[in-house]
Amino acid sequence: MASLPEDKLAQLEKRFDSVEAALSAGPSAEEYVRLSKEYAELEPVVKPIIVWRKANEELRAAEELASSGDREMAEMAQSEIAELKPRIEAMESEIRILLLPRDAADARTVILAVRAGTGGDEAALFDGDLLRMYQRYADLQGWKVELMEESPGEVGGYKEVIAKISGKGAYARLKYESGVHRVQRVPATEAQGRIHTSAATVAVLPEVEDIDIDIKPEDIRIDTMRSSGAGGQHVNTTDSAVRITHLPTGLVVTSSLKSQHQNRAQAMVVLRARLYEAQREARDTARSDARREQVGSGDRSERIRTYNFPQGRVTDHRINLTLYKLDKVIAGDALDELIAALITEHQAAQLAAMEGVR
Known about the structure:
Belongs to the prokaryotic/mitochondrial release factor family. It comes from Devosia nanyangense. By secondary structure, the chain is an alpha+beta fold. It has helices at residues 6-24, 29-66, 71-98, 121-141, 170-174, 233-237, 260-287, 326-330, 335-357, and strands at 110-116, 144-152, 158-166, 179-185, 196-206, 220-225, 241-246, 251-255, 303-308, 313-316, 321-323. Helix 1 packs across helix 2 and helix 2 packs antiparallel against helix 3 (71-98). The protein starts with 5 loop residues before the first helix and ends with a helix.
């Protein structure tokens, strides 16, 4: 494996020291916020580099001692060398991963959209299962979940549900969930006990600000309509639901809460997120066709995972990983095992690509 890029390490350490010194010098409030953000980004990368350098110094000292004439000291040094070398190799692997290019959207809040696909009522029920899985997973990660839009199914679950998930690392981990999720099980409504196959589409989008996506007023059409849903005179009498159509792309988003003002705001949030993601996908596709071979491509037409209830297994088709703990995965408790494996595979692909360039 190639050695670490010394020039890049030195640049990161120099910038970290510079930012640290600037923070200690008492900058203005605005500059302090900017520097603190940069410090928080640099520290997790630079600190392991500092520890790695110290370990290398200890290794050099031990190697010098091992070559001395003192037999007892040489034996002690050899023992230290045997301990330091694998530690240093592990540190180098960690640093290589930390140096990988970061997705600019990783720190953003998530807009999660889950939509029932083939399978009718069973697909809607599966939609509800997936939402609860992500809600539980978010809770375990310490993230906040806010439902933005929901279209209930006829017998339960959802035809479509949209939620906002905020918290550190939310998009960085959940982005691997985009795609078609397939379920194989006996529906509660199936009298013959036959296994049905249903599907739901998951879209994980990064929330974006006005400055990220410029939407011109003349490019959208906003229609108000009567809210649909169960119960409540307000739903039956008020034209509060909002449908926004982005004319250049044909994208349509809706929101049907009680407040028309809130509906417009929420629909615009989802529209910006979808336009931003469409731009990212177009850019990444143009840059490299190899992206199709990488996990986490975000291709929502791709079947990524199967949940097989009769056999109690869940299989992620992108990395050919099967876990026989479907109950824990669908409950959200073991979902991170799949996500962690996807991240590891993605990082390995990135490292291999970088090594191939050198």
